[in-house]
Amino acid sequence: MRINDTQIDDTFAEAFPMKATRLVITAHSSTWARHAANSLTGFATSVIDCGCEAGIERDLSGDETPDGRPGIAVLIFAISSKELAKQIARRVGQCVLTCPTTAVYGGIDPANTRAPLSDNAPLGAGLRFFGDGYQISKVLDGTRYWRVPVMDGEFVCEEFTATVKAVGGGNLLFLARDIDSALNAAESAVAAMHRLPNVITPFPGGVVRSGSKIGSKYAGATASTNDAFCPTLVGLSKKSELTPDIACVLEIVIDGLTDADVGAAMTAGIAAATKIGRAGGVLRISAGNYGGKLGPYHFKLHELSKDIDGSRA
Amino acid sequence: MNAITLRVKNAPGFRVDGSKLLPATLAEISATELPRITLQGAGETCALGDLFDIAQEPSDAPALTIEGDAPWLDRIGANMTEGTLAVHGAAGDYAGMKMSGGELNIRGDAGAFAACEMQGGRLSIHGNAGEFAASALPGDMEGMTGGTLAIHGSAGARLADRMRRGTVLVAGDAGDFAASRLVAGSVCIGGKVGAHLGYGMRRGTVLLANAPSRIPPTFTEGGRGFDVFWLLFTRMLAREIAPFSQFAGKILPRRYAGDLAVDGRGELLIANS
């Protein structure tokens, strides 16, 4: 398949079940909400060594937040409920509790979520102990909040955040003529994806250049460079999938609350990159998988691309 | 399923236990059976048909309406779990006792112990409530533990005694010992309060629309910095009865902490101060 002369490989992205939650962070101003969110989602690019994958979903206006202040929604994904709870406690404790004027609430609505509900993860249920006995709880409209005395007043947080069974590891590979073309495609795709709800792109700027494969020639390394897509290894690696005209490959990894959300984000990314097309240096779009044997979610690029506008010549 | 209307035709001359009159229970009973339901009175029983004219009509949801004053009818809505129960007139004692769901609407006065040990749902009293509203039954350790009690008029003494959770709203005045021995929960009073406000209160929130004649001596200035809680609280109150629906989230009330004679983690908030 070709769209605007960019080749769409007949392949699929392979994704995995994860556990996820949304946190709503509010603050006296959107600036301080963003400070907390940036801190909370820092060093959260990959579950391989960060414990979770996290990112900012979108800014929230005052009429979208529980306390009427400006806020921000973040999504956190982990490989198990236990690890997710651990990461939430650590990150909220170190990055939100500490941040001036912030409050934090669970952002999954159990009554309306399309993703299957999982456990409740503690928020205030654990953080309240910072109050050293001065903390007080309040149940308002059936939701329990904790009020922990801190030096700027009170840190208010909901007792629990609902978690859901989510999808992690959706991906797109942009194979381009040069670095500028690859960055342009990736940045456009990330921007298009961020306009959609329920998804994050956890890597720096939403883009990763060190795509990996499972295993290594070195004992003890569980993952190593994806030599099939490294332009310096064309003709050297037997697995290389590149042609000499490809000088740069960038990847976007997508985590979403449902497979439909991940699929929609991938479609938006493909549409943004093919809009640039071959004329803009985007030569091919591909995806990473493990032969389809490891992950239950297969996102086939041709199916995702069938309704995208553009020349099919 | 039927919606049922009971119109008072004879006051029995003695107190009657109305706890059998639950919307979900009566909704499944046939028109021929309804008048034969026996209610326990003081030392004797009486048939529903002797006390009320009964009307039924099909309905999707369980609903019961009692029309006329029935101050002799105690325990209306006691242990209610679902449906709507409306009383167009006065109700007796223990209205909404231990109810855990549904809506009980009394468009008149209620007697003593309204909403006592209530666990959930909503009880609205458009007139006045007697003593011990939202409180514990004598000898019990916990009063109201959930739901909302909204009193449009005034409440008697010992309002919310030993209350642990939930929301109590009194648009009018409250008698002596309001929120005494409060364990937690929210008690909001729009009018004047009697003596010994918050006596022995451990935790929880007492919100007064106006400053009382004196702050209890075992309460201390409780500081500032509770802006976010006040925003959350006023957003919830915005859906409730006046004057509480009109409190602005941006204007902090004066706060006192107490009762220092006990735990001292309760708060007394005075909105218009």
TrEMBL record, chain A:
<dbReference type="Pfam" id="PF02741">
    <property type="entry name" value="FTR_C"/>
</dbReference>
<dbReference type="GO" id="GO:0046294">
    <property type="term" value="P:formaldehyde catabolic process"/>
</dbReference>
<keyword id="KW-0012">Acyltransferase</keyword>
<keyword id="KW-0963">Cytoplasm</keyword>
<comment type="subunit">
    <text>Homotetramer.</text>
</comment>
<dbReference type="Pfam" id="PF01913">
    <property type="entry name" value="FTR"/>
</dbReference>
<comment type="similarity">
    <text>Belongs to the FTR family.</text>
</comment>
<dbReference type="InterPro" id="IPR002770">
    <property type="entry name" value="ForMFR_H4MPT_ForTrfase_C"/>
</dbReference>
<dbReference type="InterPro" id="IPR023447">
    <property type="entry name" value="ForMFR_H4MPT_ForTrfase_fd-like"/>
</dbReference>
<keyword id="KW-0808">Transferase</keyword>
<dbReference type="GO" id="GO:0005737">
    <property type="term" value="C:cytoplasm"/>
</dbReference>
<keyword id="KW-0554">One-carbon metabolism</keyword>
<dbReference type="GO" id="GO:0030270">
    <property type="term" value="F:formylmethanofuran-tetrahydromethanopterin N-formyltransferase activity"/>
</dbReference>
<feature type="domain" description="Formylmethanofuran: tetrahydromethanopterin formyltransferase Ftr C-terminal">
    <location>
        <begin position="153"/>
        <end position="304"/>
    </location>
</feature>
<protein>
    <recommendedName>
        <fullName>Formylmethanofuran--tetrahydromethanopterin formyltransferase</fullName>
        <ecNumber>2.3.1.101</ecNumber>
    </recommendedName>
</protein>
<dbReference type="GO" id="GO:0006730">
    <property type="term" value="P:one-carbon metabolic process"/>
</dbReference>
<comment type="function">
    <text>Catalyzes the transfer of a formyl group from 5-formyl tetrahydromethanopterin (5-formyl-H(4)MPT) to methanofuran (MFR) to produce formylmethanofuran (formyl-MFR) and tetrahydromethanopterin (H(4)MPT).</text>
</comment>
<dbReference type="InterPro" id="IPR014053">
    <property type="entry name" value="ForMFR_H4MPT_ForTrfase"/>
</dbReference>
<comment type="pathway">
    <text>One-carbon metabolism; formaldehyde degradation; formate from formaldehyde (H(4)MPT route): step 4/5.</text>
</comment>
<feature type="domain" description="Formylmethanofuran: tetrahydromethanopterin formyltransferase Ftr N-terminal">
    <location>
        <begin position="1"/>
        <end position="150"/>
    </location>
</feature>
<dbReference type="InterPro" id="IPR022667">
    <property type="entry name" value="ForMFR_H4MPT_ForTrfase_N"/>
</dbReference>
From TrEMBL, chain B:
<dbReference type="InterPro" id="IPR002489">
    <property type="entry name" value="Glu_synth_asu_C"/>
</dbReference>
<dbReference type="Pfam" id="PF01493">
    <property type="entry name" value="GXGXG"/>
</dbReference>
<dbReference type="InterPro" id="IPR017550">
    <property type="entry name" value="Formylmethanofuran_DH_suC"/>
</dbReference>
<dbReference type="GO" id="GO:0018493">
    <property type="term" value="F:formylmethanofuran dehydrogenase activity"/>
</dbReference>
<dbReference type="GO" id="GO:0015948">
    <property type="term" value="P:methanogenesis"/>
</dbReference>
<feature type="domain" description="Glutamate synthase alpha subunit C-terminal">
    <location>
        <begin position="83"/>
        <end position="210"/>
    </location>
</feature>
<dbReference type="InterPro" id="IPR036485">
    <property type="entry name" value="Glu_synth_asu_C_sf"/>
</dbReference>
<dbReference type="GO" id="GO:0046914">
    <property type="term" value="F:transition metal ion binding"/>
</dbReference>
<protein>
    <submittedName>
        <fullName>Formylmethanofuran dehydrogenase</fullName>
    </submittedName>
</protein>
